[in-house]
Write a structure and sequence with these properties.
281 residues, Alpha-Beta Plaits, 10 helices, 4 strands, 64% helix
Length: 281
């Protein structure tokens, strides 16, 4: 349990750092306002003397206070920590590595890195059962007190923020911001799913005991075994069902071929396995 907590804490911190790197080095210099607190902070930083990093910090604090007032303190520590941590890192980047222009003259390349780094960072935070705060808190408040479709409301707000970049920056920046907004949700969902990708094996073999022993003793997974009859050969064989992580799948496939070269193997990909040894319900 302690090692799991340490692992989750480490992943959560790495996620916050990646999120900050994507925001400060790629989003803010290019004016990519793809919605959320960072998008609003980028817009406000352009039209006011306060820097984007400071605006992000102010907005996150304001939303956290709003959340505590209307939602209570339950399950809020991780959100408080992540929100303040990534805001602080972004502010430190601003102090220690001041940027007056984008890193390159390739805005599309920088948009790709901006969306990739922030999506991976957000996914790592979500995967640790945490949140980076921001508009997520506003969504929870809306959900609690209104009948508004929260997803559509937040999408509308993000669209307004992205559209604002047309007027605050220029047409090119506005187009890139809208492109980033469209890709953001898809990328976050894809990265989150990739964390949980597992392989499901169906193995038809005459070497049931040897393969099952390897699965249990070496991979530390269980298996479900049934007896089957080949309709063409009329031979009796065992059918083994098991699931494992992607890196374990390579080892298992290789071992099966060593034990039983004639085994028939079906391998499929699953984005979610719930149960002992994988994910809780």
């Amino acid at each position: 349990m302690k090692s799991t907590k340490i692992k989750n804490f480490t992943i959560m911190n790495i996620g916050c750092i990646l999120l900050s790197v994507g925001i400060y080095f790629f989003k803010i210099p290019n004016g990519f306002a793809t919605g959320g607190v960072t998008g609003i902070g980028t817009i406000l930083g352009r039209i006011s003397p306060v820097t984007p990093a400071v605006w992000i910090w102010i907005l996150n604090i304001a939303l956290l206070v709003l959340g505590f007032l209307f939602l209570g303190w339950q399950n809020s520590f991780k959100t408080l920590y992540c929100s303040m941590f990534y805001s602080a890192i972004t502010f430190l980047f601003e102090l220690l590595i001041p940027l007056s222009a984008p890193l390159t003259d390739q805005p599309l390349l920088e948009l790709m890195y901006a969306m990739l780094l922030t999506s991976i960072g957000s996914a790592m935070i979500f995967n640790s059962d945490a949140s980076s705060g921001g508009t997520d808190i506003a969504a929870l408040v809306l959900k609690k007190f209104t009948d508004i479709n929260v997803g559509k409301a937040l999408l509308a707000v993000d669209f307004v923020v992205a559209a604002s970049s047309f007027f605050v920056f220029n047409i090119q920046t506005g187009l890139f911001s809208l492109l980033g907004l469209c890709s953001k949700a898809f990328l976050v969902d894809t990265v989150i799913e990739s964390f949980h990708t597992c392989k499901y094996f169906v193995i038809i073999t005459t070497k049931r005991e040897e393969i099952s022993k390897y699965i249990i003793e070496t991979l530390h997974h269980s298996a479900t075994v049934g007896s089957v009859v080949g309709e063409f050969t009329k031979d009796n064989r065992a059918m083994i069902h098991t699931v494992c992580k992607r890196i374990e799948a390579i080892k298992l496939r290789k071992k099966i071929k060593e034990i039983d070269p004639g085994a028939f193997i079906i391998v499929t990909t699953s984005n979610e396995i719930i149960g002992r040894g994988f994910r809780g319900v």
